[in-house]
Specification:
The complex is a heterodimer of chains A (392) and B (95). Chain A is of the alpha+beta class. Chain A has three domains: 156 residues, Reverse transcriptase/Diguanylate cyclase domain (Alpha-Beta Plaits), CATH 3.30.70.270; 57 residues, DNA polymerase, domain 1; 154 residues, 2-Layer Sandwich (Dna Ligase, domain 1). In chain A, 36% of the residues lie in helices and 24% in strands. Chain A is built from 13 helices and 14 strands. In chain A, helix 9 packs across helix 10. With 95 residues, chain B is mostly beta strands. Chain B has one domain. Helix content of chain B is 0%, strand content 47%. In chain B, a hairpin with a 4-residue loop joins strand 6 and strand 7. In chain B, 14% of the residues are buried. Classes of the chains: A alpha+beta (392), B mainly beta (95). Chains A and B meet through strand 9, helix 11, helix 13 and strand 14 of A and strand 1 of B.
């Protein structure tokens, strides 16, 4: 299986530079994490001693004058998804393994791209030049990854022939295994893939179990791990910037209710409901907070969705005052069947809401509003109440 | 069943209530107190019943700095006005 690996080094940092060119001349550390645990996601190249996934405390101990930037994961993901969309125009088999690492199945493309060079040229047209992609082609995901890692910046490397010879000089740290296994390998004095490849499979299996056979195969350049292409699913993304920074759950809920309403406007015509969604907020100091919410049965009722969202917001506190909120509906579904309420009052309310919805379909704009308390305690009068469309 | 007209629904039509309305106010040159209000016709201010100040969201780029007055006009009408201390404009708003 021929695989092309595309590595976009320092992808989060480059996304930040594309968004704000001033970042290029600053010494920034991009951090992510929830609660009090903050980890380094990326950093400016001139900041020595830092590495990915080290804690913020460790990073600041090395570089105390670095500028801290909170990671904007939705932005990075959407930028990466756009690249994957472009790659899917080249090959149907595209896997976005991690932010900034993509694999592309290169088998069967020889009629369109007669050689590897023309395939790489096609990929270069899709990936923005500013991201300086490194590429590698080899007979499996792991060797292709190492080829890309070993290629010059903005260049590529094609491995043909004996893959094992190319790989033998790499340290065992590059293996996609747990840290425990890597430490254990070091304990046995096995430091390079060449040494590992030379080990007989029996002793490795007895020490590492099934993983022992796997790492020996990888070290020899055999990787039969299949590509996991992206699922073709409809994702609906909505977000809003709040009119003022808030710490009130009710204000955040009002904003999210609007977003959910917009989603229902799009899907209710098809009789669909929300199966799962990701709820995210961005705080005043750019900190990202995200939670996944799943429904046993697709939710077709905004009240049901909002009650779950309220529960999540109450149970998982925000890291700071909220400035932006958004949802990403990643799974839709059809409800199995819905029985009308037993109670006359509830049926009456449902009928009324249906009538209002029909009226809005005819007129094109919300016609009936309900008064909602937003921040009734606010000293600023226009922040206390708001009118929300009723027919949702 | 009403047919879908294909018009775009503005589901995001979230409307704040009690939004301040700009109003013309003549103010005293020395004290900046309101002397007359021009809504809808010019009326002199008979009395200032109350005055209070709001300093909020000072940490943001656009802080809220308002000086509110509860005034009685010559017709006997009561109004709540405020002067936006950032842009110097006058607004009426129920408080």
């Amino acid at each position: 299986m021929r695989v092309l690996c595309i590595l976009l080094p320092d992808f989060p940092l480059k996304c930040e530079i594309i968004r704000n060119p001033g970042v290029e001349s600053s010494r920034v550390v991009i951090i992510h994490g929830t609660g009090s645990k903050k980890l380094v996601l990326d950093h400016s190249p001139e900041l020595e001693g830092l590495r990915k996934d080290m804690t913020l405390q460790q990073a600041l101990a090395c570089q105390d004058r670095a500028e801290i930037v909170q990671a904007d994961l939705p932005y990075y993901r959407s930028a990466f998804n756009r690249i994957l969309d472009g790659l899917e125009g080249i090959s149907p088999l595209v896997e976005g393994a991690d932010l900034g690492t993509a694999y592309l199945g290169a088998d069967g493309l020889h009629l369109i791209y007669p050689d590897d060079e023309s395939l790489i040229a096609a990929v270069r047209e899709v990936v923005p030049e500013a991201l300086t992609p490194r590429m590698g082609i080899a007979g499996g995901k792991f060797p292709a990854y190492l080829a890309a890692l070993n290629s010059p910046p903005d260049g590529h490397r094609i491995i043909s022939g004996k893959t094992g010879d190319f790989m033998k000089g790499f340290p065992c740290d590059v293996l996609p295994v747990s840290m425990k296994t890597k430490v254990k390998l070091q304990g046995f004095g096995i430091r390079t893939l060449g040494q590992l490849a030379a080990c007989p499979v029996g002793p490795l299996q007895s020490q590492f179990g099934p993983e022992g056979r796997k790492i020996q195969q990888l070290a020899r350049g055999f990787d039969d791990t299949p590509l996991y292409p992206r699922k073709a699913e409809e994702i609906i993304e909505e977000n809003t910037t709040l009119s003022s920074v808030t710490i009130s759950i009710d204000t955040v809920l009002v904003a999210i209710e609007q977003l959910i309403s917009r989603v229902f406007v799009r899907i209710s015509q098809q009789g669909m409901g929300i199966h799962s969604l990701a709820l995210w907020t961005r705080s005043y100091d750019s900190e990202h907070w995200e939670r996944a919410i799943r429904f046993k049965e697709p939710a077709t009722d905004i009240k049901r969705v909002m009650s779950r969202i309220r529960m999540v917001l109450e149970n998982y506190p925000q890291p700071g005052p909220v400035e932006q909120a958004g949802i990403r509906v990643n799974r839709l579904g059809y409800p199995r069947g819905r029985q009308n309420s037993l109670f006359k009052e509830v049926r009456g309310r449902d009928h009324l809401i249906e009538d209002i919805r029909q009226l809005e379909l005819r007129q094109g704009n919300p016609q009936v509003f309900k008064l909602r308390e937003v921040e009734p305690w606010s000293r600023i009068p226009e922040r206390r109440y708001a009118l929300m469309p009723t027919g949702r | 069943m009403v047919q879908d007209t294909g018009k775009t629904l503005r589901a995001d039509a979230y409307r704040p209530v009690n939004v301040p309305e700009p109003v013309e106010v003549e103010e005293a040159s020395s004290s900046s107190l309101p002397l007359a209000v021009g809504a809808p016709r010019r009326q002199a201010v008979k009395a200032i019943e109350d005055r209070w100040r709001i300093d909020d969201e000072w940490w943001r780029k656009e802080p809220v700095l308002r000086l509110y007055y509860e005034v009685v006009l010559e017709s006997g009408q009561r109004l709540v006005l405020y002067k936006d201390l950032i842009n110097g404009c006058w607004y009426r708003q129920s408080y």
